[in-house]
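Review box. Two proteins, two foldings.
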Amino acid sequence: MEFFEVVRKRRSLRSYQKVNIPKEDIIKILEAGILAPSGKNIQPFEFIVIDNEEIIEKLGEIASFIKDASVVIGIIAEPSQSKYWLEDISATTENMLLAIEDLGYASCWIEGYLLPKEEWAKKILGIPENKRFIIILPIGKPYQIPQQKEKKKISEITHYNKYGIKYL
C-alpha cells in the first residue's frame, strides 16, 4: 500500500475477527516499531507478543474488545534509560499501527484503559516492577471499516511564521 493511503485508511477499531496472523507479519509489525525515531537511538522499550487465548481473555478486563484479538502486542518501557521514553514509545506505537493497517489487520491504541490496571497486567505477564506497561495493541481482522471521522482542516490549525497568520 502507498504511504498516504495507509495513513488515510488507518482507524482505531474495537471489533475483530479472530484469524491466524503469521509470525512473519508479527515480525514486520515489530520491525516497524524498532524503526521508529528514538531520542539518541536509545530505544527504551521492549515488546511482548501474546497469542495465548487465556491471557488474551484476562487482558479483556482492561477493555472488553481485547478478547476478540487474534494477537496482542504490549509495549514495555524502561523510563530509567531515557528521559524521552514516552515520546519514543509513542513513535514506536504509531509505526506499528501503520504496519498493522498496511498488512490488512486492525488495531486500537489502548493506553488510558490500561493505566489504572498497569500493575495488575504486569503481574499477569511477569513484567518487572521497574518497567512501565502502558500500551496494548490488540490485532485482528476488521469486520467492517467505518468511515474516517472528520478531521480538522489544515487551514484551521496551521500558522505561518507567527501565530495567528494563516498558512493557507
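Next protein.
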Amino acid sequence: MTQPYVPERRPIASRNYSVSIRIATWIAGLGVTPNAISVAGMIAGGLAGVAFALTKQAAAGWLWFLAAAALMQLRLLANMLDGMVAVQTARASPVGELFNEVPDRVSDTAIFVGAGYAVGSLPELGYLAAIGALFTAYVRAEGKVAGAHQEFCGPLAKPQRMAVMTLAAIYAALAPAAWQPQLVAWPGRTTLAWALLLIAVGSAITTLRRLLRIGKALRKEPK
C-alpha cells in the first residue's frame, strides 16, 4: 500500500487552534484545492505590495497602509490553510510543495518591493529586504536538497517578517507624523524604511543562523 506523502511543514502553533481546524475543514468540504489556496495567498501578497505602493499616490494613504496589513495577514492565513487542507484531503504531494514555495517567493518580493515605494520609504531598502527574504528561503531549500531537514529558524523567518511589516503598516497608518521614527541617514524616510532595514538585517542574521544549523546537521553534529 502506498504511503501518503507527508510534507515537511513549518511549525505553526495556530494550526492546532480549534477555529483553524474548523475553517480548514469547511474549506476542504467546499472542494477548494490546496494549490488554489496557495495561489490565493500569492494574489493577496501581490495586492499587499500594490497597496503599499499606492500610499504614495493616494490622498488617503493611511487606508492603503491598513489594506496592506490586512492583505498580508490573509496571505499568512492562506499559507497556513493550504497545508492543512492538503493533509485533511490527502492531497499533499511534491507538486503541492511547488505551489507552496513558488507563490511564497512571489508574495515576499511583491510585498517588500511595494513597501519600498510606500510613502516615507526607500526603494533600495525594499529591494534589499526582498533579496534577504529570498535568500533565507533559498538556504532552507538548499539544506533539504543537501540531505538535511528544512531549517525554519529565525529570528526573521516568514511569520516574523510579516509580523514586522504588518505592525509597521498599522503604525504608519494610525500614528501622527510627529511620532513616525526618522532614519537619520535618509531624511524624510520613516516607519516603513525602518521596517525594511530591520527585515534586511534580520534576514542576513537568519540566513547565517540557518547555514550554521544546516552545516551541523549535515555533519551529524549535535545542536
